[in-house]
Each structure stands twice: as C-alpha cells, then as structure tokens.
Amino acid sequence: MPRGELLKKLFHSYSQGDSQSFHEVAGEIIRDEESKNNRVLANALRRNLGSGQRPLALPDKNNFTSRKLAVVPIERDKQLPLVDTIQPERRASDLILNRNNQRLLLSLLAEFRQRDVLGAHGLRGRSRLLFCGPPGCGKTLCAEVFAHEVKLPLLVASMDTLVSSLLGETASNLRKIFDFAAAQPVVLLLDEFDAIARLRDDETLNGELRRVVNSLLMLIEQFRGQGFVIAATNHERQLDPAIWRRFDEVVFFEKPAKAEILRLVSLKFRNFKTDFEPASVADFLAGFSHAEIERVCLNAIRQAVLNQRNIVSKRRFLESVALEKRRRDIAGRLPQ
Hints:
- Residues 125-257 form the AAA+ ATPase domain.
- This is ATPase family associated with various cellular activities (AAA).
- This protein is α/β, with parallel strands linked by helices.
- The protein has three domains: 1-51, no CATH class; 85-252, P-loop containing nucleotide triphosphate hydrolases (Rossmann fold), CATH 3.40.50.300; 258-333, Orthogonal Bundle (Helicase, Ruva Protein, domain 3).
- It has 13 helices and ten strands.
- It has helices at 3-15, 19-35, 39-50, 99-113, 115-120, 139-149, 159-162, 169-183, 207-222, 241-244, 258-268, 290-306, 314-333; strands at residues 53-59, 66-73, 83-86, 128-132, 154-157, 187-190, 228-233, 249-252, 273-274, 311-312.
- The strands form three sheets. Strands 3-5-6-7-4-8 form a six-stranded mixed beta sheet, with helices on both faces. A two-stranded antiparallel sheet has the order 1-2. A two-stranded parallel ribbon has the order 9-10.
- Helix 8 (169-183) runs parallel beside helix 9 (207-222) and helix 11 runs parallel beside helix 12 (290-306).
- The longest helix has 20 residues, at 314-333.
- Residues 56-69 have low confidence and may be disordered.
C-alpha cells in the first residue's frame, strides 16, 4: 500500500479510537521500512510503539462504549502496564455501608455531578480520597461502585510493577500514572497504598523509598484531574503523617454492625431461599468482615446446590459459619 494511504489509515484509526487497527497499520509501516532495509528507522519505530504507552479504549461518558484512543503508561524495564483497566460492574445495590459513609459518598457523588455549578463559583469538588480500615470491609468494592456511579473507568495501579528496583524508577512510574489519571476523567485506585506511603522514619525503609514518599506527597497534592484518586490501605497506622493532609476526605470502613449484617445476609440470599430469617443468625456473624460474611453465605448456597436443595437450611448456614471460624483461627496463628 502506498505510504500516503498508510498514513491516512493510521490517522483515521487514531481519530476513531480503533486501537487494534492503529497498531496493525503501525506494524505495516514498520515492516515496509524493514523491506527497504531501513532497519535503524524500523527498530526506532518499533521501540517507540511499545516503549511508553499501550492502548486503552476509554468508555463513553454515558454507556462505557469505546470512544477515543488513549494510552496506558508502562514501566521502562519489562514493558508491563502500570495500571489495570476495569469496566465497573458492581452497583450501589451491591454495597453495604453504615449511614455515615453512605452520606459522605453521596455528597461526593453530588459534587461530581454538579461540578459545573461548583466551577461557576470558583470551587472544586473533593477528588482525593483515602479509604482505610480492616481487610475485607469493602474498600475495593466501594471504589468500583463509586466508578460505576460516576460513569468513569476504574484504573487499578499495579503495585508489583510500579515499585521498581531501578534507581529513581518507582517515582518515575508514579508520575506516569498520575499524569495519565489527570489527562482524562478516570477513577485511579492505589490499592495496598501503604506499600508506597510508609512512615519516612521507618528504619526498614531505604533512601529510595523515602524519596518515593516525597514524590507521592507532591503528586497527590498537585492532582487536578477531572476524575478521582482513591488510595486504599489496611494499615493506616503505617502511613506517613503528611500523607493524611493531602487527601480531601478520609473514609474509614469498619466491620459491619448488626444492622449491616442483616442487610448483607438479605442481599446475598436475594436469589436463593432460606428457612430462616437473617435476624436469627446475625449474632453468629458478629465480628466478621463483609468478605467473611459473603463467603459464609456463598459457601452455604454452594453446599445446598451440590446436595440438590433449592433452599438453604439454618443448620447448613451455621456449618458454613463454623468453617469460616476455622479459617479465621488458622489465619490468626500465622505470623503477622
């Protein structure tokens, strides 16, 4: 195909957000240069095509359908993406929160939906959020539900890729991620946030990671994207004190009280019958996390299905509770 036609196809695929076609045409241009023995140029083009960015089809504002071609940052050494893209599927009805957290998150949604009104008065909505609390209490789920409610893609930072052994690369990777999140409306989730935001006086921290914390402080403070940055941690006491001041809002996720336990059990059995009322088993679940209660319910349903029952008995449910307690006891004996 003539060079002019290839270039026209390349630009057309970019304008249409057709990532696959874009890379196919780019590859064709590279092969064309190789056939002309322009190997230096061909190698340079191939490196540039995969050296810093990978395609991401961003969802449409209203229905999550692909609209424009954007790019995902990748780390320099192994060429791996620094974020994973998730199309949010979990809805608000899947999330059980206490009333204080419900009110807080509803107010954040209202600010986002009326951001033009705030902007007309020189104000910005809160967009930098810290989720903390015990494991299994809904932090990651809440981030997904939040992304679904604001109709934005959810980007989850890959901590194992982000933290690099190369000098200065971790801070560079962080900047790539924040620059990307600021370039288009997204919800960026920094899960296991304590891995990069530890106390700077922690003796186990080397000089490189202390510099990472300094970079992180600046990146969070300077974030002015149209979406959100959500950091989540199970170990809030390990965070550097200066980190807390950089967030617009802190949401603490606690283990469910009795009212939330009742709602959660009802939610999990909404499509499967039981011979008991949630109130009759709530006390057996006191002290359990949301994830543990979900596991109890799903295991009880699973056993009923395997035994060809279309109803979960209270006896089977309590057997599932006993199994979860056994699991907790084992976890409690493991070194922390």
